[in-house]
Every structure is written in C-alpha cells, then in structure tokens.
C-alpha cells in the first residue's frame, strides 16, 4: 500500500548526505520537508549495511575529512542525535618500500595530529631537512587551506571567492603583503610542482601526492596544489569514522530532520518532476504518489535531474553535459581475521587512518596513464583503511573489516572487457598489492565484496562509477561546476528547482557543503515572498 499524496513546502530528491543536510536546514527554518529516495538504504554513498552476519560494512565513503571542517556537524548539533566520531589519529601511514623495491628500506612515515611527532617521523625516515620543511609547509598552507574550507562553504561567486582568499595576502609578522600573482601561481599550480618546491624525499612526496590524488585528478595536473596541501588542516582536526560505520552520519541527519518535523520515504524515489508554466510543482514518485511542493531540491546526479525533468527541462539543464569521465576506482570490502601488519610497525599505529601504500609518484603516474588508455593498471596502487581497529561495533571479536581502495580503474575498458568477469581477478591483484607491504594480509582475507566501477553505478546510482559525480579537475570546479549555467544551485528557466549533491560546488567527498548552500539559496529566495505575504496581510488587516 503506497503512501498517500501530500503537500509540503519542499521536497528533496535523494537521501544522500547532501540531500539530508539540505532537508535539515530547511526544516530547521520551519519548512515542511519530505525526502524521497529510491534505495531501501538511507544515505546513498554515506551508508553502512550488514554485509556478512554481524559485520557492518560501508557502501561508499569511509573516512570523513571535509565535513569535520565544514561546521555542518556542529550547526545541526548532530552529536545530540547520536553521531559520534572516532578520530583517525595517526591519520596517515606510509610504509617503508616493500622488500625487493629499489632504494633503501628506510622507516615508515607516520602522520598524526601532533605536528612534532609527525616531523620526528619524517626526520627519521627522510632526514631533518624535510622535517623542517614540512613544519614550515604546515605553517604556510594551514591558513591557505582554511581559506579553501571557507570557499567550499559559500556559493562560488567572484565576491565569495574574494572574501575567502583576499585575507591571505595581508602582511603578517612584519612580512609585506603576498602579491596576488604569487598566491594565484601557488593555488593554480600542480601538486607535484608544489611538492618539488618544498621537499627532497620522493617517499614523502609520494605519500602526500597519494593523499592529494584522492579527489581524482593526478597531482601532475594544474590546480591540484590545494588538494595536496589539505594535509595542513589534519594537524588540527583529523579524519574521522562514525561509530557503527559511515552511515552513522546520515542516520543522525535523519533523526535531526525528524525532530524538526521532516520525513524520509525510502524505496519510492522520484520518477518525474511535476511542472506548470515554467516552474516546478512537486514530484511524482515511482509508486505514482504525488508530493506537491513549490520547491524541489534535486540532490541526485545532475544527469538524473535532467532525466526527471524530461521535456520540461530548460536549455541550461537539457543541454548539460558535464565531464563524468570513465570511472574512478575499484573498492574491496575485505573480511579478515587480522589487521594488515607492516614489518616493524605496531598495527595499532598503522590501522588508525589512511594507509598510503605508495612510495614513488611514478606508480601514480603509470596507473593514471593506464586509466586514460582504458586499461587496467599494470601496477595497482592501493589505499587501505581498517576502522574496525578502533570501533568494535563493526565486526565480532577476531574479525576485521579492511577497505582497500584502488584508484583509476576505467568503467569502460578499451578492449571491451566485462567487469563482472574481471572482478575476482582484479580483487586478487589489489589484495596482492597490499600484501607486498603487509606480508600475510592475503592469507588473512576470509571474504571479499568487490565494488567494480560498474557495480558502483548499479548499487549507488553513480553514472559510470564516478564517486565524485563530475570530474574534479580545475575546468569543472567552483563556478564551472557542474556547468557554468548551473553553478548557482538554481536551474534557470525552471523556477523552484534547485541542485545539490556532488555534481555541484564544491564537489564530491563527505562535506555537506553543497546541501547547506542549496538550502541557504532556497531560503534566500523565499524571503521576498515571505515579506510580500506579510505586507499583504498588513494591508488586509488595515482595510478591515
């Protein structure tokens, strides 16, 4: 029996974290809000399910980085609604080169919130000069990265960007103002160029590059310097993993929304937008139910929004062709009987954060080159995470959940290969890539759930398996995302329709910024209407 038709002030399409964030801000402002979602699981790519009996496994994101700096968690008081983070500290670990690799064995790199401890690790592994350089790097790029955080929380207008970045040039400590051209060169330059200016050790540069490349573009591309420099912020607040899994964030958002009178309907997503005279009037769901509303926030992929609008799509939406790319990566969710054990390293240290299993940027360049050619990587480059080490709600005693991420796996293979047939073999290769650094890891794996680019598309409604929706290169960021015509969160030509989600500024990753900004735009647009209604009421009362 389907839900009855109803009328609300705003309907949100998609119960991913950005959709829920938008809904929470709208409901907090007093609007009646309903979220409709096709999936039976709340949270989209920020969700957790019982993959094996008693074992909770994330479906998408695992480490939450940006949201811990955006202020969304605090503004919505999500701790009061059950959200609790386990800090990833140390937040990064890069092993010594694997046995048989060229170069000295060396010591591992351990990045923690404690800057002194991090510099001591760098000094031991790479030398005191690089340790001193890293300390200076954090001092210079800390304020710059905070400006990036500020810009992510605003609409990507020229004024907004100026407000975020202009203070960076101010004179400090007796030093003169930093010329705008110098700042622009730093921000628009490549991550590799930035690393080469600051450091000498390739191992250190490879670890920081692998962290910076998680947004998608290789650090050889222009505009990736800021992605690398984000590490400066992690010495203030590290990445976190919600207790109970990544979905702990979206579960808390749902509880917050319901506390303010909003509701979420799962398993009955939007089938089409309802429109009349160039404006939206609500949505019709897959069950045929109609939810009437003067505001629709489409927190799904921009191309899914285009499909929902159908013939009613105005040119800005109908002609939208953002760069979706050819896949993004491959994910293994491994059930193991032990944590990855790196030689000479306490697993309690290495397991807390991101295990950056790369010691040479040439590995990254080769993997990206294979991806560009539509080939499987000849040498997979893994990133491992094992949050069950600090959260015993994820797996029973004696068991662990280890996520292994392999980046730059093409959705469409140049040789026409079938991902369903290739999945198991590629999983074995990626497990073996971890085992090179953590001998015995392959033997510890009891079961594996393989999320190929094709499965990511099927399971999480991610076109071509791109977890960022739209590529995160410089040409599709800020006021160019997802297209210049759609960068303001409104859809020109279809009043009442707003965009949110990873397709919009500031892009993918767990931040909530897009949902919050979309809600702010909706509320700003309603204020003139509210003032007009209030004035009309005053006139009516005076007439009476």
TrEMBL record:
Family annotation (PROSITE patterns): PROKAR_LIPOPROTEIN
InterPro entries, per database record: Amino_oxidase (IPR002937), FAD/NAD-bd_sf (IPR036188)
Domain of life: Bacteria
Domain Amine oxidase, residue spans: 190-523
Pfam families tied to this protein: Amino_oxidase, NAD_binding_8
Subunit: Interacts with COX5B; this interaction may contribute to localize PYROXD2 to the inner face of the inner mitochondrial membrane.
Function of the protein: Probable oxidoreductase that may play a role as regulator of mitochondrial function.
Name of this protein: Pyridine nucleotide-disulfide oxidoreductase domain-containing protein 2
Species of origin: Geodermatophilus arenarius
């Amino acid at each position: 029996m389907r839900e009855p038709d109803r009328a609300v002030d705003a309907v949100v399409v998609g119960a991913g974290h950005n959709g829920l964030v938008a809904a929470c801000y709208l409901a907090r402002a007093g609007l009646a809000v309903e979220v409709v979602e096709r999936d039976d699981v709340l949270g989209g790519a920020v969700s957790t399910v019982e993959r094996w009996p008693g074992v909770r496994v994330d479906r998408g994101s695992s480490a939450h980085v940006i949201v811990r700096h955006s202020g969304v968690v605090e503004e919505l008081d999500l701790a009061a609604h059950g959200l609790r983070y386990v800090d990833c500290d140390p937040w990064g670990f890069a092993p010594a080169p694997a046995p048989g690799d060229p170069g000295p064995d060396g010591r591992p790199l351990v990045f923690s919130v404690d800057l002194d401890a991090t510099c001591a690790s760098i000094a031991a592994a790479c030398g005191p000069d690089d340790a001193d350089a890293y300390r200076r790097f954090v001092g210079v790029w800390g304020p710059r990265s905070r400006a990036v955080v500020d810009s992510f929380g605003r609409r990507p207008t020229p004024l907004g960007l100026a407000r975020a970045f202009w203070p960076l040039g101010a004179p400090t400590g007796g030093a003169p103002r930093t010329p705008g051209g110098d700042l622009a060169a730093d921000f628009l330059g490549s991550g590799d160029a930035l690393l080469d200016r600051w450091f000498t050790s390739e191992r250190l540069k490879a670890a920081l590059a692998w962290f910076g490349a998680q947004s998608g573009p290789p650090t050889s591309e222009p505009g990736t310097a800021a992605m690398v420099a984000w590490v400066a912020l992690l010495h203030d607040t590290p990445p976190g993993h919600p207790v109970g899994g990544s979905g702990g964030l979206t579960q808390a958002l749902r509880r917050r929304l319901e506390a303010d009178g909003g509701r979420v309907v799962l398993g009955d997503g939007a089938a089409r937008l309802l429109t009349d005279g160039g404006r939206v009037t609500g949505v019709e769901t897959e069950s045929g139910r109609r939810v009437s509303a003067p505001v629709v926030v489409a927190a799904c992929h921009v191309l899914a929004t285009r499909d929902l609008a159908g013939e009613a799509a105005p040119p800005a939406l109908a002609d939208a062709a953002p760069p979706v790319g050819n896949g993004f990566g491959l994910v293994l969710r491994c059930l193991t009987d032990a944590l990855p054990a790196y030689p000479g390293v306490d697993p309690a240290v290495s397991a807390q954060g991101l295990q950056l299993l790369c010691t040479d940027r040439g590995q990254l360049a080769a993997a990206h080159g294979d991806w560009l050619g539509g080939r499987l990587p000849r040498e997979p480059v893994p990133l491992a995470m094992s949050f069950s080490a600090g959260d015993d709600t994820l797996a029973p005693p004696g068991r662990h959940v280890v996520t292994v991420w392999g980046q730059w796996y093409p959705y469409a293979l140049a040789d026409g290969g079938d991902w369903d047939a290739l999945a198991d073999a590629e999983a074995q290769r990626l497990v073996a890539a971890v085992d090179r650094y953590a001998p015995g890891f392959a033997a510890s794996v009891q079961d594996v759930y393989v999320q190929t680019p094709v499965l990511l598309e099927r399971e999480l409604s991610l076109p071509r398996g791109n977890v960022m929706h739209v590529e995160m290169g410089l040409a599709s960021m800020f006021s160019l995302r997802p297209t210049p015509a759609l960068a303001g969160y409104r859809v020109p030509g279809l009043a009442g329709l707003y965009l949110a989600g990873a397709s919009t500024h500031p892009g993918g990753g767990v931040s909530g910024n897009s949902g919050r900004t979309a809600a702010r735009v909706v509320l700003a647009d309603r204020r003139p209407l509210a003032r007009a209604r209030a004035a009309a009421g005053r006139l009516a009362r005076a007439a009476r």
